[in-house]
Amino acid sequence: MLNISDIIETIEMINKEHLDIRTVTMGISLTDCADQDIEVSRVKVYEKIARAAERLVPVCESIETKYGIPIINKRVSVTPVATLAGASGGDPELYAQTLDEAAGRVGINFIGGYSSLVHKGISEWDRRLIESIPCALADTERVCSSVNIGSTRAGINMDAVKLMGGVIRRTAELTKDRECIGAAKLVVFCNAVEDNPFMAGAFHGAGEPDVVINVGVSGPGVVASALSRIGDDADMTEVADEIKRIAFKVTRMGQLVGAEASTELGVPFGIVDISLAPTPAVGDSVARILEEIGVERVGGCGTTAALAMLNDAVKKGGVMASSHVGGLSGAFIPVSEDRGMKTAVADGILTIEKLEAMTAVCSVGLDMLVIPGETPEDVISAIIADEAAIGMVNGKTTAVRLIPAIGRKVGDCLEFGGLLGSGPVMAVSGISPARLIARGGRIPAPISSLKN
Amino acid sequence: MRAVITVIGKDMVGILANVSAGCADANANIIEVTQSVLREFFCMVMLIDASDMNVSIRDLEEKLRGRADGMEIHVMHEDIFNSMHRV
């Protein structure tokens, strides 16, 4: 018989501490849909997604019922669309419409992969796709987009960085009557991963199987509750051990659900992404964990150290619990989606500069930051370049998801609703990086010895 | 397939009888029962064989909640606990 306290613990985690499976994401390769005729290619794309993901939502719902675990999102990621657009020619935005229609048909809320990988250079088709992103995100509901502009091996493509400053701004402008929501569906990466199940940055990489199931778990609320129980007498080693124990249990649940979904759908199981993904719900906050560890408010001195320990302990606990761990795997710090982060920003305690430092020790980057609408394009590009540099030098994934709040300024707020939450407009340095950004070219890949 | 029923709430007469009767109606065989009363709180864990049930796990949960008013009742597949708490 199972231990009664273990059973109660699981039930409390799910019912009171917001433990859930954040996403079951089906990765689908579209390389076999490429055709010289864009209309033929679109039909193939629609049919492949409709066929492969037809049972995704019902199977996930049956797993929810069977195990009593909420699966919050069911999603699809596809091969970066720039690849298809290169083969077919034509207006790449047509593919966005196809993806949106296919996503609607299979009943998912987001589909990722309106993407381009340009870390070393931009082909004509990559450029066309990138330039089409603002319209594609404004005209569709479910499509998410990402662009990889740098990597540890290739360096940073500053031409792409420059381009993305404008793309992010235009995306926000085209959706300014909808709280600039378009920009919340666009991620700029350095060292993008091929098996990320989390939106908006998910795409199906070239090294992946034809179809695959990846699972993202969550659980900041569970970790925060556990830490509040162990109290202030526990030293940091004990705190780290407690986090590892929780991460292990949470990841086991992800492994169970992923394996079950994979068997039921008849597709291979890829990875469990052991990220701590916060939600706007009270208590389901990474900021609250850092505050439980002992920083009075997130953003204060000690935040980076606490976050480094948290991020590492989550990985250590999760790795043994799953046969394959991958994706982004770490603690997310999306400002608008995390109540504790959001209030710290609103109170002026957490700044972009501190967030940037925090991203050096955790997954993933400057995520869901609302910046003043008047922020110049070259400043947006420079924020991307700074964040990409952290990823490039540290050999980790970093991402930027900025939402320029068109027509608003510091002190205002954007209300996205749902899991995206709401974000106060943050102050951005007014010092001009115009000459830096205007240079273009590439930042050479960093040396991997002489580490200091 | 086995499932775990947990019943938590204020101790009162007939909880075990009501939940057991609900299981019998659903054609679920009770394999094991553990219960304890911590202060005034009643806590019962019941392991059932759910393979030949005439209702789904979710429906059984609803029916049991109807039978034991005011109690917190969950019915979950056994594997969730095994995977989370056993290495």
Description:
- The complex is a heterodimer of chains A (452) and B (87).
- Chain A has helices at 4-15, 38-52, 56-67, 81-88, 93-106, 124-139, 158-174, 220-230, 236-265, 286-293, 303-321, 339-346, 352-359, 377-394, 434-439; strands at 21-28, 71-78, 110-117, 143-151, 155-157, 186-190, 211-217, 269-273, 365-372, 398-405, 413-415, 422-424, 442-443.
- By secondary structure, chain A is α/β, with parallel strands linked by helices.
- In chain A, strands 1, 2, 3, 4, 5, 6, 7, 8, 9, 10 and 13 form an eleven-stranded mixed beta sheet that branches.
- In chain B, 34% of the residues lie in helices and 39% in strands.
- Chain B has helices at 15-25, 57-67, 78-85; strands at 2-10, 29-38, 41-49, 72-77.
- In chain B, a hairpin with a 2-residue loop joins strand 2 (29-38) and strand 3 (41-49).
- Chain B starts with a strand and ends with a helix.
- The mean pLDDT of chain B is 89.
- Chain A binds chain B through residues 1-4, 6-11, 15, 65-69, 249, 252-253, 255-256, and chain B through 4, 6, 8, 32, 34, 36, 43, 45, 47, 56-58, 61, 74-85.
